[in-house]
Structures are given as C-alpha cells and as structure tokens.
Amino acid sequence: MSQLIVRGGRRLEGETEIQGAKNSVLPILAATLLTAGQVELRGCPRLRDVDASVRILEGLGCTARWEGADVLVVDTQNLSGCAISEALMREMRSSAIFLGAILARCGEAELSYPGGCELGPRPIDLHLSGLRDLGAEIDDAGGVLHGRAPRLQGREIVLSLPSVGATENLMLAACGASGVTTITGAAQEPEILDLQNFLSACGAKVSGAGTSTVSVEGGRPLRGCTYTVMPDRIVAATYLCAAASAGGEVFLRRAREEHLSTVTAVLREAGCAIRSDGRGIACVCRERPNAVHPVRTAPYPGFPTDAQAILMAALLRCRGAAMFEENMFENRYRHVGELARMGAGIQVSGRTAVVTGVKRLHGAPVRCTDLRGGAALCVAALAAEGETEISETGHIARGYEDIARDLRNLGAYAAWAGE
Ligand code: UD1
Fold first, then answer.
1. Residue 15: count of CB within 10 angstroms of its CB
2. What is the rounded CA–CA span in Å between residue 19 and residue 44?
3. Are the C-beta atoms of residues 317 and 358 closer than 8 Å to each other?
4. Options 117, 175, 241, 285, the catalytic residue
5. 24 alpha carbon – ligand 1 mean position (Å)
6. CA dist 230 to 79, 95, 413, Å?
7. Which residues contact 45 (CB under 8 A, 6 or more apart)?
8. Phi (first) and psi of residue 100, to 5 degrees
9. Mutate which of 118, 138, 164, 326 to test ligand 1's pocket (most atoms within 8 Å of Cβ)?
10. Is 180 touching ligand 1 by the criterion CB < 6 Å?
C-alpha cells in the first residue's frame, strides 16, 4: 500500500475542485438497481468504495463503465442475480444499503451481514425492522441476511434514531412498495436530499428529504437518467481544515457552505476568514488558530462526526484548549495516538477528547487508522516541521480521489512514495 509523504511548515495558496460526495454516490449506485435502464452519473468520484459498489453491481449482472474522468455509466437492465458475496460485502461497510434496492427490484435478496468496522459496531437493526414493516421477511441467522418480499406495502415507519443508512435503505425499498411510505424520525443529511433528487430524476415521487419526514409514493416504474452528484462536504471540510492548520489562502471550487456551516462556524471562531458564493468557498487563515467552544458531534444539522478528527488536527496548534465530544460512534479517537507522535497534546476520556494547543508539531512516521483519521494525519502534517510519512493510506483512498493531488493544488508538498 502506498505511503504518502507530506512536508509541512509551508503556508497554503491555491485552489482545487471538490470531488463528488462519497456518501451520496454510494446510495445512488444502489438506487440504480430500481431503474431497469441506463444511468449516467456525472461528477462521480473515483474511490475504492465506488469500485466496490461497481463490483457489487457487476456481480448482480449489471454493467458499468467510466467515460472520461468522472462520468460513470451504469446499466441495470440485465440484472440476473439477487445475492452479494461475503467478500464483496466485507469490502465496504455501507453495502447494507443494497438490501432495500434488491428487495424492491427482485422480491428477494441474500447478503452477508456487514458486521463491525474500524469505528466500532455498525448495527443495522433499524434497516431490518423498517424493511420488515414494509412487509419483507428477513432471516438474519448465521451472519447471512436472507430477505423475501414478494409484495412490499407502503406504510408509516418511525425511526428511533435518525440513521442515514436506514433512511436511505427504506427510501429505496419504498420505491418498490405499493402505496405511500412515510419515514418519520428520518436523518436529514444533504446526501439524503441528493438521493431524493436522483430518484425524482428517475421518475419516483419522493418528498421531504432534508427534513425529519420523508414520503415516498411507491410502485411507479423508474427510468434511467443523467444526474450530477453533489460535492463532498467532508472533503471540503478537510481542505478548509488544511488551511486552518498550515495557514494560507485557499479556494474550493464547487464546495457549498450551506452543507458545512457547523464546520465553518468553528473555523471562523478559530480565526479563519471564510467567504462563499455560488462558485465555491474561500478561506484565509493568517495566525495560529484560536481556542474554540466545545465541539459535539450530532446528526445533521449538528457537527458531523466525519469532520471530528479533521478539525481536531487543525486545532493542534491552537492558542489554548479545544474540547471534543464524540456522540455518534464508539471508536472514533483512534487517530489520537498517531497525532501524539507528531507532538500533539490530546487527552481522551471516554467520549471526550481535550486538545491542549502546542506551539510546534514535528513530522513523524504515522499510520492511518481509518478514513477520516487518515485525512486528519494529512491535515496535521501540513503544520508539522519536517517530513511526515503516512502509511496504510488505503483507508484514505476509500473517500478521497487523490488527496496528494488536491493538497498540491493548494500549494502543499504532498506526494505518494515513488511519485
Ligand atoms: C453514514 C455515513 C458515515 C457517517 C454516518 C453518521 C454513508 C455511506 N456513511 O453512515 O460516513 O459517519 O452516516 O453521520 O453515508 N445505528 C443503529 N442502528 C442502525 C443504524 C445505525 O444503532 O440500524 C446507529 C449507529 O451505530 C450510529 C448511529 O446510529 O451510532 C448513526 O449511524 P448511521 O446514521 O446509520 O450511519 P451510517 O449510515 O452507517
């Protein structure tokens, strides 16, 4: 696996384009199964998780091909199977999202359980109980999920917590159910609105995404379409944090501040000047960051758990202290030990982490523990004196097309080993 070399200590100056959103494109790829036709996805990011989704689609008899840098054409007309192998399920933890779509299209599905991941247990009980509410029979014995749904029937489903994946899974299943499905207590993330927009472009009748109640009028035949994936708000947050960490002036084309206003609010408090317009977000950071109020992760519109490690890395040199509270996943401070190797002062106690700002960070050999933890190491390395060698970067490839390219566009020294 490739190593990433970052030489820190230089201010950033430059601009880069924000790739399409991973968390949007993955459910959209599952949703292509609902159309017995051809879908052209524009702004599709080239990611390991997208490759894994493509292999799942191919395993089901569909075809997919890249046209140019960022257009993926998927044809699901000749779907021939309804089972996903365990090896493919293990490659990507969010593969459970295929369950609702396969059940809606085939009336039957067989998937292995996605199981836990680097962030801790990843239960899918809400996905399963919602699908059962719609009339699916799901047997989940022995790590294999076997679902049968000769006829899905729309109804009201109440989610006890706003799970992103469960909301999306149920939206997809509901497209294949007769009658109206209402999901209350739905997650409100922008990616759910993107999924609704995609489904609408295919001819579905879905409304309410972006609020806590989503309605789907199911049973309509869906057609293929051409659709542009929304920009990735966590990638945008990463590069804003990169500017806060190293100092400098960056412009992120396509980034949309309305998707990451809790992140920009903290960066403004830290002293960054941020402006945005229809073209993107500009960020200027001149000084060491200020201390900030406690940052508590929460479902959208709260502070995103996916930006926690990245913001923490940007605040390692803050003047004072910064407190973090992680409320979404159990195991989301694994990056802390690696940041400590670079001279960071962080104390973790349960779900709380307190950063005591240090004047200097230094380069060190470090290891990615997970996707966003890996991005956090890059952000910290930009502010560290000397060279940081980041290994196990396969985690980063799950969510960033080419983080070294983007950081170079922003004026950093970042290169893959051997590049
Ligand atoms: C999605 C995102 C991920 C992000 C997360 C939270 C994708 C592909 N991934 O993951 O990047 O970190 O949202 O914003 O979009 N839960 C249950 N039972 C369930 C489902 C979830 O207890 O059936 C719990 C989870 O353990 C977690 C919380 O609900 O504590 C939120 O999880 P969820 O919103 O489902 O996250 P994902 O959809 O897996």
1. 15
2. 8
3. yes
4. 117
5. 14
6. 27, 20, 28
7. 19, 20, 21, 22, 25, 70, 229, 232, 401
8. -60, -40
9. 164
10. no
Closest CA to 368 of 333, 395, 330: 395
**Residue 276, Cβ neighbours under 10 Å: how many?**
18
Question: Ligand 1, residues 23, 93, 163, 189: which to mutate, most atoms within 8 A of Cβ?
Answer: 163
- Tokens found for residue 402: 């080419």
117 is catalytic: yes
Q: How far apart are CA 96 and CA 112, in angstroms?
A: 9
Whole-angstrom Cα distance, residue 110 to residue 118? 24
Q: For each of the chain's 419 residues, which pLDDT tens digit applies?
A: 589 999 999 999 999 999 999 999 999 999 999 998 999 999 999 999 999 999 999 999 999 999 999 999 999 999 999 999 888 888 887 789 999 999 999 999 999 887 656 777 778 999 999 999 999 999 988 888 999 998 999 999 999 999 999 999 999 999 999 999 999 999 999 999 999 999 999 999 999 999 999 999 999 999 999 999 999 999 999 999 999 999 999 999 999 999 999 999 999 999 999 999 999 999 999 999 999 999 999 999 999 999 999 999 999 999 999 999 999 998 899 999 999 999 999 999 999 999 999 999 999 999 999 999 999 999 999 999 999 999 999 999 999 999 999 999 999 999 999 77
Residue 162 Cα to ligand 1 middle (Å): 8
Residue 117 in contact with ligand 1 by CB distance below 6 A: no
- The Cα 172–Cα 106 span in angstroms is 13
CA distance 177 to 369: 40
